[in-house]
Write a structure and sequence with these properties.
7 strands; 5 helices; seven-stranded mixed β-sheet; alpha/beta
Amino acid sequence: GIVFVTIQEIVILLQTNTDGAFYWWYIVSAIIGLVWSTYIHAKYFLDSTHSLYWNTKNEEQTRAVGRYIGRWILRGGMILTLKGNLGAGKTTLVKGIAEELGITDHITSPTFSLMNIYPIPEPKKDMQKLIHVDTYRLETTEDLVDIGIEEYLGEKNTVCIVEWPEKIAPLLTQKNVLHITIEQTSGDTRIISMNP
């Protein structure tokens, strides 16, 4: 986890770079980052009513939030719902999540196919598949049921991400769901919020 990686980086720096104030500043910064990241990570999971917020200023930062979610928050059986206007950055966030999970396929929003299935090449934390659903053009819930969505929602080795989730709300009841909203404030600036 982050504790091991950060301590390992500090040890390597101490072994290889012992001169200059820059390296000591890096070490201090790494320790501060370690404490803060551990606090945020623990606080989120200890308090089920806690919300997380990120402000991003470009696509890369939005992808970075996706990578964070993929690394520290996602577990098998989870469902992420994504809300946001067209062009808000929902698919960009999914790209970051997929990247963290080691998926190298080109990620596109399944607007017409309704559902894309991506095997996770090296399963992490009991996650073997990423299911990306886009219900924007969905006419009835039955259309999604017909292509097999129910066998993936809440499946213990699967993570599902659902764009425009309000259209399939009945299928999400009594599931392990995290709700993400992306709000475009101005230009490329976004506010991303996550709530249980």
